[in-house]
Specification:
By secondary structure, chain A is an alpha+beta fold. Chain B is mainly α. The chains are: A alpha+beta, B mainly alpha. Chains A and B meet through helix 1 and helix 2 of A and helix 7, helix 11, helix 13 and helix 14 of B.
Chain lengths: 1066, 402
Amino acid sequence: MVVQRRVGPLLGVLAAGLLVVLARAFQVQVLQHGIWESEAAGMLQSSEVLPYHRGRILDRAGVVLACDEEQYEVRLCYRDFRRGCPIAQVAHARSTLEMRNVPLAEAERELETWALEIVGLRPLDLRGFAEGHALAVGHAPELEPEERAFALRERRAADLRYYAAELLDLPPRVRGCLAPPAETPQTALSLLELAALARGRSPDVQKSELLQRLRDSRASLAQLATLLERDGRQPAGDGATPLARLLDLLEGERREIEDDTADALFREAAGFAPGRVRTRLLEQRFDTAWIGRALRWDDARRHDWIAGRRARWESLLAEVLLPRVLLRAQEEPIRSRRADRLLSEIALLWVPGDEIERASDGQPRSWREFDEPCVLSELDSLFEGAAGPRASDAARAVLPFQGEGLEELAQQEEDRWRIVGALADLARGAAVEPRVRTRPAGWQPPAGPLDAAKRWRKIGAGHRRLDWDDGLVELSWLCFALEERFQDELERQLDLVYEQCGANAPLAFHADRRSRAAEAERYLLLDRSTRPTPLCRRPSWDLVELVTRGPEVYAGFSVSTTSTRLHPQHDSDGVGLAAGLVGSVRRPGLSDLLLQGRERARLSELRNKLVRSSAEAAEERELAARLVRNDEWTGGGGVEGLFDKQLRGQNGFQESFSLSDEVQAAGAELVRAPVDGLDVQLTLDVELQRAAQEVLAHPRMPNGDDSDQLWCRYPVGAILLLSPEGDVLADASAPSRGGLPPTPGRNAEHSFLRERSLQMPTSNPPGSCFKAFVAAYALDRLGFDSARSFACEPLADGGSGYKTMHCHRHGSLELHDALVRSCNAYFGQLAEQAFKPADFLEMAHLFGFGEPTGISELDARGKPRLLEHFRIPEEDKLESELRDRGNLMRFACGLMPMEANPMQVARATAGLVTGTLPEVRLVRSVGGEERPRRSRPLGISEKSLAFVREALEGVVEEPHGTAHDPELSAKTLGFRLACKTGSADVWKFDPDAPLTEADRADMLAGKWRKHTWIAGWFPADAPRGILVVYLHDVSETASKSAIWIAAQFLQEPAVQRFACGEEHSK
Amino acid sequence: MRENAPEKRRSPLARVVSLRAVRWEALDWHVVLLALGLLALGLAFVHAMHSADVLHERPPADSVDFDKHVVKVLLALPFLVLGLALRARWLARHAWLVYSGCLLLLLVTPIVGDSRNGARRWIAMPGGFDLQPSELAKVGVILMLARILYKNKLAKPRDWGPPLAVALVPMALVARQPDLGTALSLVPVTLGMLYIAGARAGVLVRFLVAALVLGACIWKFQFGVHDYQLRRVNTWVESLAADDLIDAKGGAAFHSYHARVAIGNGGWTGTGMGEGIANTAAHLPERDCDSIFAVVAEESGWLGTAAVLAAYTLLVAAILGSASRLRDRFSRLAVAGVGLYFAAHLFIHAGVNLGLIPLTGIPLPLFSTGGSSLMATMLALGLGLGLAANREPSLDRDSFRA
C-alpha cells in the first residue's frame, strides 16, 4: 500500500504532464493551425516572375532593326569549381596544409606530385595532424599546446580527407573507409590504399586512375580555356598559355571571393566593415589573424587584404554611396524639405548598420536623431578586456550631427540650405579633395557657411532635379571632410583603448563577437563562393556544347540563358543601321530602382506575407508585372527610349508548389502570362539607310585641288531622305562612332557621335538652300515680280556682288537665274527691297524653321523628347537684328543669323514640293496601329511654288546651275534631280592649327571653312524622295563637295531602285 | 513449487543471465505489446521519411536510412532479451559493476571519443557503429540508484548524499561532453526514484525549486555553461509566442520554428504519413531523432498525437504499475526507474518540440533512430519486464509490507 501510495502520486504527475502536453499540442495543432499551415505552405510555395519579350523595332517593310534575343552565357560558380576540379582540389588542399594561399597556377604545375602526396597521407598522419603533431607533407610543424586551440587542425584534417576523397573520386557511401577506427591496421594504410581496398582493386590501378584523371582534367580545362579566349572573354594575367591565363582569371575570382568573405567575417564580429577604419589602424589595432586562419591565409595575404580595404570603401563612398545620397535627396517631393532630406541622408553614412531605418515611404530617420556614429558605438564591447573609452571622451561629439549647434540653427533658420552651409563650414579644416570624375576647373572649397549655403541653394534650386554635377562635387568634398574628422577621432579613441589594455599587439575581438563570427563563418564562405560570375557572353556553340555535355568534367562552369538586345542590321563596317535613331537599351540604373523603391518594398512585404487576401494576391501580381526587374532592358535613347513604355511588356507570374530550385512545369500554376511589348514600326527603309550610311562612311570626291579630300578622310555630316509626305526613309550621320580622332586643323566634331540631322552643335546656317523658300515667299506673299532683275556687279574691293554680299559677277539676273546660279547679290537686293524683318520671321515659320519638325513627341514643356535643336538662335531679338541691312541680306541668303538643322531643311523642301508642310514622321505604327500623318497647308500658291521648282530643276540641268554636273545628270542617274545647293562660310582657317597643305593653300587663298548643302527631290517630275545632304566643316563650296556626295548616294543601287518605284521588301 | 526448489549449482553465466528465471506467465505482455506497437509505429514513420527522401531524390547525407535503422533495431532487440534475462539478484549485487562500467565509458569518451560539431559524445566501435555512452549511463544510473536506495530509506539528511552523488557524477560527466539534454533527462528519473524510495515530496519539491533557481541564476549570470546553451534559453524565452518565433525563424530559433510549423501543420487529422512538410521540405533538423515527435504530430494530427501520447503514457503507467506490485525493493525501484526513464524522455522530447522547454536534443525511445538509444531503450525495457517477472524471491523487509 505504501508503495502503491508512492506510485499513485507519480501516476498523477504523469497524467498532469500528459494533460499539459495535450493542451499545448491542441493549442499549436488546432488553435494555431492556420498560422503554421500558412508557414508550411510558404515553404513549398515559390513564385517566379516570367519575363516578357521587349517589342521589336522594324523598318517600313518589317525588317527587324532591334529585337530581344536569348543567348547563352557561360558562368562560373567557384565553390563547385573548387570541389570538382582536381587542380582546385589540390590547390585548396595544399592551402589547408600549408596555411597559405596556394595559387591555382602553382597547383597546376605541381598537380601530380601534390595530388599523390595528399592521397598518400594515412589516417594515422591525419589524426596526428589533427592533434597538433607535425606532418612532413606540407611541412606542418608540431604545435605547442596553447597553439592547438587556434590552429583549426581538426577542421583542416577533415578538409584534407574530403579533398583526398574527391581526388580519388570515391562515392559518398564508401568514404567512411578513409576514416577507419583508431588502433586498427587500416590507419597505417595510405588513403589511396584504403580507397583501392574499398573498391576491390589494387593500389597501382587506383594510382594510375588518379593520374589519368589529373591528365584528363588538365586537358579539358585547357580546351575550355582556348574556347573561352576565342569567344571573347578577355584573359587576365600574363600567362603564357590559354590555360595559364584562365587559371589566373579564376585565381582572381578566388581572391575576390576570399576578400569578400573576409570582409563579411570582420563585419560579423565588429559590426562594421573593415574599410570604415584607416589601414594603419586596421593593421595595428585589430587582431585579424583569426580571419586569416579561417581562410587559410598566410600573413602576407592577410596584409594584402588589409591594405585594400580602406581604398575600396572610399571608392564605394565616392562612386555609389554619395550618388545615392544625392538621388535620394532628389526624390524628396517637397522642395522646401530637400535640404533636411539631404542632411538626413548624409547622416545615414555614419549611422551604425543595424540602426539604419527607413519609413515605408523611404524617408530616412531624421539627422536630428543621430546618436553615436558607427564604429565608435561598438567600441565599448569591441575588444576582449577593454572597457571602452572614458565616459568624458566618449561624450565628445565627433560629427556635427551630434552637437547641439546644428539643431539650434535648424530651429532658428527658415532657409534650410543654411544648415547645410553650416555643416559644410564645420567640416572645413580637413585637407581633402572632392572625389569626382570631372571637377570644374578652379573649384575651391566654400569660403564659409554663407558661401556653402549659396552653392547648395543653387544646386537645390531645380524644380525636379538637383544640379547633379555641382551637387556631387560639393557633396563629395563635404562627406570626405566629415569622414576625415571622424577618422581622426576614431584613431584617438582606438589609441586610448589600446593604452588602457596595455597591449603590445593587435587587440582581439570580444569572445562573444568571435563566437558569433565563427558560427556565421561556414554560411558566409558558402554564400560568397556560390554566387555565379559571368565568364563569357554569347559563347559559340562549341563552347556551349563542351560545358553542357560534361558537367562533371567542367565542374563549376555552367551555361545559362540570358536575353540581349540584338541589332541585326549593320553596314559594312559593322555599325548598326540607324543606331542613333533606333537607340539603345540599358539595365535599370540606381535611380530607376530607387524610384520604384517603395513599390519594391511593398512587393517584398506581400511575398513574405504568406496569408494573403485575394486583393493582396492581385496586388502582388500587379506589382510583379509592373516593377522593373534587375535584369530587364529599359530604353536609354532614341526610339527605344521614346517608346519605352510601348516596347516594354508586362512580366508574367507563376506560382509553384514544388520544392525544386527551378520551377517544375508540371507543378507550376501559371497565374499570369507575360505580355510581350508592342512592336514599333519605323518609316525607315533599311536598304536606303544602309546606302546612306555606306556613302557617309566611305565618301568619294574626285581627286584634285578643288575637292576636300581631308573631309573624305574625316567625314562629318548627314544624309536625309524623306518621302514627300514627311516619312523619314533614311537618316544617316557621320561619324557613326564616338571617340574618333578630330579632323586635323579643323573643329573636333569628328570625335563626337551625334544625330546630325537634328542637332546643331555649332553654328549651322543653311546657306543658299534657304533662297528657294525666300523666293517662294517673295513671289506669293510680297507680290514680287519674278521678271525683276538685279545686278551682280564688280565691287570696289575687287570682288563682285552687292554691298557686303559677295558673289561671282553674274551680271543682271532675274529670279529664275538667280536661283539657278545662286546669286547672293540678287537675293541681297531682294531682301533689301522687298522684305521687312517681320516678313523673314513669318517666312521662316511658314516653312517650319524655328519649330520642331514633329519627328519626336513633345514633353510637358513643349520640347521634343528626341534631342532636336530647332530654334533659330535668339529669335526674340531677330527682328531687331534684321533691321541691320547686312543681317537682312545675309538672312535672305541663308547665312547667319539664320540657322537650321537638316531635318528642317528637308521638311521645308517637302513643303515646297507638295504645297503642304508635313510633320516629319519616324514611327509608322505602334503595335500595328498606324500613327497618323499630320501636315498643314503651306499657304503658298501653286504658281509660286511651281516657279521655284522649275528653277531648282534648272540648278541641275542648266549649264550655269550650281549643281550642274555629269554625276547628277539624268543620263547618269536615270532620273532627273531638282535641288538647291548651299554653302555657308562659318570659320576661318586657324593659322596656328596643324593644317594640311591643301588647307593652308586654301587659307592663303582667302577661303573660309563652310557647311555645304544639297536640298532637293527626285525624280524631279514625280517626286518620291526629298533629299538633303549636309557636309559639316568643308573647305569647298557645295558645287565641289556636297553634289558629289549626293551623286554617290543617288547612284547607290538601292536608291536607284527606289527612284524607279520599286518598293523594298523583306 | 518450482520457485521454491533448492537452487541447483549454476554456471557463472547462469548466475548473471537466465531466461529460466523469468516467469513468462507473469510477464507484462500488455507492456510488451504496447512497446512493440510503438516500435512498429516508429518504424512506419521512419520508413515514410525514407520514402519521402527517395521521392525527392535527396542526397544520402540529407536522407534517412531506413535499412540502417532496421538493422539497428534488430541489433538492439537482443538487448531486450538480455534485459529480460539478467537475474535480479545478480543485478542487485553487481549494479555497481554496471554503473562503474558506464562511468568508465563516460570518462574515456573525452579521450577516445570522436568529436563532431564541437561535442565529443561518441566512441567509434568496430563495424562502423558509434556508441554513445551517455545512453547506457541512464540505465547504469537507474540500476545503481536502485541498489543504493535498496537499503537507504532517506530517513536522515546524510542519507541523501550517496544517491545524489550516484546521479550527479554521471550527469556532470555527460554535461561536460557537452550534452546538457541527456544530463537533465536524469533529473526526473532521479527525483522519481528518490520519491519511490521514500523521500518526502516536500523535500523533493524544494530540491526542484532550488535546481530551477540555480538554473535561472546560471542563465542570468552566464557561468558554467556554453554560449550556445545560453542562446537556446534566450531563444526559447524570446520566441514563446507564434509571431515572435516566426520573426526569429531565420536565426537561432530555426530548429524550434520548423518543429512548431510541422506540429501546427498537422491540424486535427494530420497530413498523412510521409506527406508532412517536415518530410517534403526536409528543413526540420534531426527529424528522425530529436524532432521525430514533430513529424508524428504533423502526420497524424492532434487526434493521432493524442493517441500516441496516450499509448506512451499507458506504457509508462503500466511499467510503474508493474513496479508498484513488486515486493522486492530493488526490482521495484529499478522497474520504476525504467518507467520514469520512458516518462522523462517522452515529456522532455515532446516538451522541447512543442516549445514548452528550451531546445535540447533528446531522442524519443521506440521512435527515434540512433543505435545507442535503441540499445539502451531495449535494455531498459527488458530490465523492466524481466525484473517485474522475476522468479527469485526476496526476503527484504518491503517484501512483507502490504
